Amino acid sequence: MRVPYDVLISGCGPVGATLANLLRQQGYAVAIFDRDKDVFIAPRAMQIDAESCRIFQQLGIQSRLEGRDARPAYKHVFVDKNRKTLMALDTHSIREIYGHAAAGMRFHQPALEHLLRADFDNTEASPKVDTYLGYEVLAVDGAGSAATLTAKNIETEEVTEFSGRYLVGADGGNSLCRKYITDTRIDMNYARRWIVMDVLVHDDALWNSLIDRSEFMCRPDAAVVFVKGCNNHVRFDFEVTDEVAETFTKDDAIALISNYFDTSSIEFQRIAPYYFYAGMPDKWRKGRVFIAGDAAHLTSPFSGQGLNMGIRDAANLAFKFDLVFRGLAGDECLNSYQDERWPHCERTINGATARGLMISANDLRGRMKRALSFFIGRVSPGLALAMTVKMSDFTVYENGLIGAHKLSGDRFIQPWVTAQDDVPMLLDDVAGDGFLLLTNGSDASQKEAWFDKKLGGKRLHIGTDIEDSKGYLTAYFEKHDISAILVRPDRYIFDAGDDAAALTAGLKDALAAYG
Ligand SMILES: Cc1cc2nc3c(=O)[nH]c(=O)nc-3n(C[C@H](O)[C@H](O)[C@H](O)COP(=O)(O)OP(=O)(O)OC[C@H]3O[C@@H](n4cnc5c(N)ncnc54)[C@H](O)[C@@H]3O)c2cc1C
To answer: Which of 11, 300, 329, 496 ranks highest by number of CB atoms within 10 Å?
Structure first.
């Protein structure tokens, strides 16, 4: 058996690669396995939300992704079969309270995955991630005192067993790790056939002329989604019956796309039938084996959340592994991963399903409901935006590693602040990667051995350590009538109140309760 790792990761898609880097940053020994040597050429996800951007900011890759490979996504339009606008949403006016574009960014998935993989060797401050690309994972086991993974080198056919303290299956929708954990998958009311077309537009003038937006065509016979991506990539998703899926040809694709633009300079990266399905296995853990990303949850793509849910999984698991590895919490702490993430994903998936069914509705009741929503959106775009923001505000954890304050389990804001040398910085860049105790008012909290030394938490006092240059933090503290807030490494609020010492004591007790 090979030298034990801290964490073995099966699947080097975006979720596995994000988790590997988060653990690498914390100094852990990680091995990651994938049957494919290269990243998949065509993007699947096209939109990352502000929370994923924040996690990529922590990894130091967000600034590298922006520019060529990502840009803010502001415009979403619903159109009829003639492409006449039924309702338009423009998110420019929504305040960026999490430090990144409120409605997220359109991005190029292969570029993101290349950046994530490039950082596996980023050895300046941490060990490198051991990569086993071109390895088929044949079996996993989490029952003993270590997790084991059996993998076959596809070229040499040599089979090797690896071991680690824990194993995470980020091995996609057809996950072997999921099948190891459970046979039970809960269907969540969406199972439909679509054709996914990824197109490269080689004519730059044509590419530049395409409006930068996602467009949802609510056709009575079949919905079409059009998204202008990055790097000359355009996505079309076309809802089809089973029969059409069987017989759909490149000529059919060209006929559909020619309703949008001249097809003479396009190249198809792929035309693939997809079965969009929504569902989750009932369990995400068995012994030392966990699942994350598509392995743990599948959603229809209409909220652009499939990958984002997986990136949140990675951030959630990474800091909890760290607590367990450092002896600050027992293994039971890792159960809070499913306690927090499962209901959160359930709400997210239900939201996506509702959107998907709304776009495709062809019964009278569905169409009337849709027409009413679009009417409201047209007469009051502000209200439509507010409703969209509310529908997307699915981010509160109700159980798990959280305190009792009403803010506990919510995401903390990330404004620009002024730190040393009067340089404006995003709050997380000042706070670092661990727990953050942020205080306001006259009484700065006192250092204590457990929080400051053992946990390695960071204290920031507004007015002393940072200037709240735009006043957002002060306004937040006033609005919620608090003077201290304790934020977890994944930027969710552990607890809030007036007594900073009580918050850290509460965290210590909560971790101790996990054994
Ligand atoms: C048309 C479409 C549009 C989408 N749009 C969006 C969007 O806008 N926003 C969004 O957030 N999400 C979107 N998604 C969803 C998103 O693409 C997925 O949620 C995301 O790619 C899942 O990442 P993952 O790392 O969990 O899994 P994957 O990307 O599937 O990676 C799993 C990896 O595991 C490897 N693997 C599997 N089994 C084994 C094995 N036995 N041995 C070795 N290797 C193995 C595979 O080779 C693969 O590389 C969309 C999906 C589709 C299909």
So the answer is: 11
Residue 142 lies in a domain: yes
Q: What is the pLDDT of residues 196-237, one digit of tens each?
A: 999 999 999 999 999 999 999 998 778 999 999 999 999 999
Residues 420 and 347 in one domain: no
Going from the Cα of 156 to the center of ligand 1, the distance in angstroms, rounded, reads: 26
- What is the per-residue pLDDT across 240-252, written as a single tens digit (0 to 9) for each? 998 999 999 999 9
Which CATH number belongs to the domain containing residue 453 in this structure?
3.40.30.120
Number of domains in the chain: 2
What is the whole-number distance in angstroms between the Cα of residue 384 and the centre of ligand 1?
31
Query: Using CA atoms, how far apart are residues 491 and 489, in angstroms rounded to an integer?
Result: 5
Ligand 1 contacts (CB < 6 A) are 11-16, 33-36, 44-47, 136-137, 170-172, 176, 196, 237, 274, 293-294, 301, 304-308, 310
- Work out the number of other CB atoms within 10 angstroms of the CB of residue 331: 14
pTM for this entry: 0.96
Q: Check whether residue 179 and residue 325 sit in a common domain.
A: yes
Q: Is residue 75 part of a domain?
A: no
Domain annotation covers residue 203: no
| Boundary (domain end) residue, out of 326, 351, 376 | 351
Domain that holds residue 162: 5-67+107-184+282-351
Nearest CA, atom 14, ligand 1: 45
Q: Which atom of ligand 1 is nearest to the CA of 305?
A: 11
In DSSP terms, 196 is beta-bridged to: 237, 272
What is the number of the ligand 1 atom nearest to the C-alpha of 298? 19
Compute, in angstroms, the gap from residue 212 CA to the centroid of ligand 1. Answer: 25
Backbone dihedral region for residue 83 (phi beyond 0: left; psi -120 to 50: alpha; all else: beta): left
Confidence band of 1 (pLDDT split at 50, 70, 90): very low
Answer yes or no: do 26 and 159 share one domain.
yes
Is there a contact between 81 and 217 (Cβ–Cβ < 8 Å)? yes
Instruction: Name the residue type at position 111.
Output: A
Ligand 1 atom with the smallest distance to the CA of 14 is 25
Ramachandran region, residue 165 (left: φ > 0; alpha: ψ -120 to 50; beta: rest): alpha
- For ligand 1, atom 18, name the residue with the nearest CA: 307
Residues 343 and 473 in one domain: no
Ligand 1 centroid to residue 368 C-alpha, Å: 35
Q: Is 239 within the bounds of a domain?
A: no
Nearest-CA residue for atom 52 of ligand 1: 44
Residue 410 alpha carbon to ligand 1 centre in Å:
27
How far is the C-alpha of 466 from the C-alpha of 427, rounded, in Å? 9
Residues 6+ apart with CB under 8 A from 378: 86, 87
CB under 8 Å to 244, separation ≥6 — which residues?
Answer: 193, 195
The dihedral over CA atoms of 428, 432, 434, 438, expressed in degrees to the nearest 10, equals: -60
Which of 351, 379, 395 is the C-terminal boundary of a domain?
A: 351
